[in-house]
Sequence to fold (172 residues):
Amino acid sequence: MNRSKFIHLSVLGGLAIAGLESCSTSNSLTKKFVKDPLKMSLSREFVFWAHSNLKEVKTLTQEHPHLVNATVDWGDGDFESALGAASHVGNKDIANYLLEQGARADIFTLAMLGKEQLVIQQIEAFPKTINLIGPHGFTLLHHAEIGVKSQKLIDYLKNKGLTEKFIETYKK
Fold:
């Protein structure tokens, strides 16, 4: 290795180390925004109950209001929030409660709730949205059919070519 290449690589290495250090949890900017993270076990419990138990969801939300936006990675990028859980099983009561508590709605929740104009507008603005998958590989079509069952939305999705209700994305 010549001297020029050595200096170049040394500078790049130093910058990389400085960059990593600036991202650590000990820097003052990060400390300003990062508080005590929610325990993963609590987030998993909350997402679990959000599939079917409004009483438990309300109890946990009252004890830990920030849980409404907690997300769990079940593995291999299969992310699920409590709202995502309620949405893919068509639980409108839990979904609406979470939205009232400040949960962030996504296109899957909107499809489940039959918010056809919002879903259609997003797909028209961002056409690849039609191929997104939600938690556990469920598609927009699944969410539209399990929830309010807006025939206009179901027909729209099918006319756009969406036929799968579930996509096995995690096959090896």
Observations:
- The chain has two domains: 3-33, 40-159.
- Strands lie at 71-73, 79-81.
- The chain has a mean pLDDT of 86.
